[in-house]
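Changelog note: in this version the structure field was regenerated for every chain. One regenerated record is shown below for reference.
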Amino acid sequence: MLLATQLQRVFILKDKGQEIRLTDPEPRWSTEAVLNFYAPTYPILTTAKISAPAIRDDAVEYRFETVMGTKG
């Protein structure tokens, strides 16, 4: 018999060389809503984009990729 289970969503943020794993605050929210939820805590997310999902370790991983420009 096959069992279908919904995979947990995990959001990954890379900040100062460290990967920070963020839990899903509300599974019904869109990925954009989750980004907006975490933006006050992690201001670097205000310029971030969300990567395509990847399935790893029985979870769907989304990466918040920051788009930081260099001054010059």
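Spot check on this record: The chain has one domain: 8-66. Residues 7 and 59 are 5 Å apart (CA to CA).
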